[in-house]
């Protein structure tokens, strides 16, 4: 801690991070031990966070992340989209295919940014807000692959054919090393197969987006 920082705010944020990392919630005693502070301090932190709906406590007294974080989370998409657009534009123009940034939303893959190429005679129409199951399509499959290879610096890219739209194929690579963001960058095109150079180019774009978000 420095003179410019708030110890109380720091502890409150640490509480939220600890709760976000568990599916079962934490008791006051567990939080006290993890934070290295007494139980009275933890009670005060939880009471303040509860007032803002950032924390909730169940009947057993275990604290969990509250629904208030969802309202904050909705503001993340525009920031992520803005950071990703330069790399997506470059990717779309270079490949001549529709480029997209996809993030995890529950059990779905949600397209939050889409850029279509300007010079092609035709391309796949793909809109921000489009969602599909994570286990269908290159964007979702790339994310699932990254989960399976959690310790890998480079999970590679994923190619699919006709899983979301007949006659369309896709390539996507996951965002790696971006804390709090789980997603992928990819392209979708009308073709019998993804050209050989597309996969590595998508992987480069995913790295660019990840760098912009760090």
Automatic annotation (TrEMBL):
InterPro entries reported for this sequence: ArsR-like_HTH (IPR011991), GAF-like_dom_sf (IPR029016), HTH_MetabolicPath_Reg (IPR050707), Tscrpt_reg_IclR_C (IPR014757), Tscrpt_reg_IclR_N (IPR005471), WH-like_DNA-bd_sf (IPR036388), WH_DNA-bd_sf (IPR036390)
PROSITE patterns: HTH_ICLR, ICLR_ED
Domain annotation HTH iclR-type: ranges: 6-67
Protein's UniProt keywords contain DNA-binding: yes
Keyword flag Transferase: no
Keywords attached to this entry: DNA-binding, Transcription, Transcription regulation
GO BP: negative regulation of DNA-templated transcription
A matching Pfam family: HTH_IclR
GO MF, one annotated term: DNA-binding transcription factor activity
Chain ranges of the IclR-ED domain: 68-214
Protein name from the UniProt record: Helix-turn-helix domain-containing protein
Species of the source: Streptomyces halstedii
């Amino acid at each position: 801690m420095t003179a410019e920082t708030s110890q109380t705010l720091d502890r409150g944020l640490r509480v939220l991070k600890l709760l976000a990392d568990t599916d079962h919630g934490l008791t006051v005693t567990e939080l006290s031990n993890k934070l290295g502070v007494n139980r009275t301090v933890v009670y005060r932190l939880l009471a303040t966070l509860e007032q803002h709906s950032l924390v909730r406590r169940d009947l057993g007294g275990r604290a969990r992340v509250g629904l208030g974080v969802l309202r904050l989370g909705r503001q993340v998409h525009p920031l992520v989209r803005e950071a990703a657009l330069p790399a997506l534009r470059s990717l779309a123009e270079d490949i001549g295919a529709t480029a997209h940034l996809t993030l995890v939303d529950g059990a779905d893959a949600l397209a939050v940014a889409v850029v279509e190429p300007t010079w092609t005679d035709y391309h796949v129409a793909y809109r921000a807000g489009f969602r599909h199951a994570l286990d269908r399509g290159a964007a979702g499959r790339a994310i699932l692959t990254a989960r399976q290879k959690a310790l890998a610096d480079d999970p590679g890219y994923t190619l699919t054919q006709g899983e979301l739209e007949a006659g369309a194929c896709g390539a996507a690579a996951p965002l790696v090393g971006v804390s709090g963001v789980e997603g992928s960058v990819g392209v979708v095109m009308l073709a019998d197969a993804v050209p050989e150079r597309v996969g590595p180019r998508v992987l480069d774009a995913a790295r660019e987006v990840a760098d912009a978000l760090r």
